[in-house]
Design brief:
Layout: E1 10-13, H1 23-35, H2 42-52, H3 57-68, H4 75-87, H5 99-108, E2 113-117, H6 121-127, H7 134-137, E3 140-143, H8 155-164, E4 171-175, H9 178-186, E5 190-193, H10 202-206, E6 211-212, E7 233-236, E8 256-273, E9 289-290, H11 296-300, E10 305-313, E11 334-344, E12 353-359, E13 373-383, H12 391-409, H13 412-415
Helix pairs in contact: 1-2, 1-4, 2-3, 3-4
The chain binds adenosine-5'-diphosphate (ADP) and magnesium ion (MG).
Length: 427
């Protein structure tokens, strides 16, 4: 990381993929349109789209057509086709996890902000229709149609800084694409990458990012001399779950960890499905997987990472179809503390998240949840996903996450979450 950051006074924000969650919708729509134009493999189309991520719509369309050698239609016609489809669906787009918190925080502290988006002004209004007026709270806006050259050229960030009335070197840019990072660096600004391309973090480093973070939850404004967030909550741990001395495994033995409360809590649920048989159960850390397709919106409200909260698991006391032998006691509904991971599943062609809670209770003979309805009230964020050098280090970290979850859920502010009617199957 380049230091020092203390001279940063202004924040410049990219829109798509950074503040609003448009990337998946755009990918879906654009790839469907492209596939109609030729017999391309899914991975070729995806690579072409990742190559242009961050560009203005016209520039991106032209570049994708070049890459895929599409010649039977004009750039304008293809752009018109995708725009019409997208215009009908912008309402589906929600904010990126942590974006609302960031905007509110910057606003409250009077930090001047610019939106620097590749989106042309005419599209911006349509895109933001379902977003209640936060764009108006930003200090200035610079749109793709106002500059000569799109990202990776610096024009849009130079214009944003000019409108803020400051030297770009006093600005930090938040960007989700390598092209955007390149543009920010070319403008002389600092750049924080929050990757929307999850399998190629190196591209952000190559683009010159001063820092790469996994999501806006992990943004540490104090590093940049900006007013820090004060909403994380310290959780005192009874004792580290590993009693051995701190080795070189990268896991700290501190007795306090902080968590980020989610406001509002995120509720999601569904029947427990089979996971990937990675043997979590044999490691003593079973995770009850949920099918994410039906809860896409709710799970997208959470950045990849580790969370804690309360779980409600439906019993079979009222289940007329109970197929177990007579005389067996019915299984009651259960409410249990849980620690959960949400992450990207690299096995799927289209990136989708997996949602996997570990219920922090020993279920003994009642420990088969498959097909039972599980509901989760997710109350707080613990940490981003991380790579581990060894399986032992991973398991140790998961146990520590469980300790953090237990500690947090014992605190008054999170304990009450188990009274959430959503978890009680009152319906
Ligand atoms: P899978 O790959 O199918 O998810 P795991 O090895 O992760 O298998 O084990 C998860 C399964 O273990 C759950 O679906 C559930 O049936 C069972 N299970 C038993 N106890 C627990 C628990 N405390 N938390 C989560 N799942 C549990
Ligand atoms: Mg599992």
């Amino acid at each position: 990381m380049t230091t020092p950051f203390a001279k940063v006074t202004h924040v410049i924000l990219d829109l798509d993929g950074t503040l609003i969650n448009t990337e998946q919708l755009v990918d879906e729509v654009v790839s469907a349109v492209l596939h109609k134009r030729g017999d391309f493999t899914a991975s070729r189309v995806r690579k072409a789209m990742e190559h242009v991520r961050g560009m203005r719509p016209g520039d991106g369309t032209r570049a994708v057509m070049d890459l895929l050698e599409i010649t039977d239609v004009s750039v304008d016609a293809l752009l018109a086709e995708t725009s019409a489809l997208l215009d009908a669906r912008w309402g589906e787009v929600s904010m990126m996890p942590g974006a609302r918190r960031l905007l509110d925080h910057l606003h409250v502290h009077g930090v001047k902000t610019a939106l620097a988006t590749s989106t042309p002004a005419a599209f911006l209004a349509k895109k933001m229709l379902s977003h209640d007026g936060w764009v108006e709270r930003l200090s200035v806006v610079a749109t793709g149609d106002e500059v000569e050259n799109g990202k990776p050229k610096p024009d849009i960030f130079l214009l944003a800084a000019e409108r803020l009335g400051v030297d770009p070197r006093t600005c930090v840019v938040l960007e989700d694409t390598p092209l955007g990072v390149k543009a920010a660096k070319a403008a002389g600004a600092f750049a924080i990458a929050i990757p929307s391309i999850h399998d190629d973090f190196a591209a952000y480093e190559d683009a010159g990012a001063d820092q790469t973070i996994r999501s806006l939850y992990d943004l540490d404004l104090s590093l940049w001399g900006l007013p820090p967030f004060r909403d994380r909550v310290d959780v005192a741990l009874a004792a580290p779950s590993d009693t051995k001395a701190d080795g070189n495994d990268g896991v700290s033995d501190a007795f306090v960890e902080s968590v980020l409360p989610l406001r509002p809590a995120v509720r999601l649920g569904g029947p427990v499905v089979r996971g990937f048989g990675r043997g979590s159960k044999t490691l003593g850390i079973p995770t009850a997987n949920l099918d994410v397709a039906p809860i896409k919106k709710e799970s997208d409200a959470l950045a990849p990472g580790i969370y804690f909260g309360w779980a409600g698991l439906r019993g079979n006391a009222n289940d007329a179809n109970d197929s177990r032998g007579d005389g067996e006691a019915p299984i009651e509904n259960v409410i249990a503390p849980m620690v959960m991971s949400i992450g990207w599943n690299p096995f799927f062609d289209n990136a989708t998240k997996t949602v996997e809670p570990w219920l922090l209770r020993d279920f003994g003979k009642d420990g088969d949840f498959y097909g039972r309805e599980l509901r989760l009230a997710v109350l707080g964020y613990v940490r981003p996903e991380a790579d581990f050098a060894s399986l032992e280090a991973l398991v140790e970290r998961i146990h520590r996450d469980a300790d953090v979850a237990r500690g947090a859920l014992a605190m008054e502010r999170f304990e009450g979450g188990k009274e959430d009617p959503y978890l009680k199957f009152v319906d």
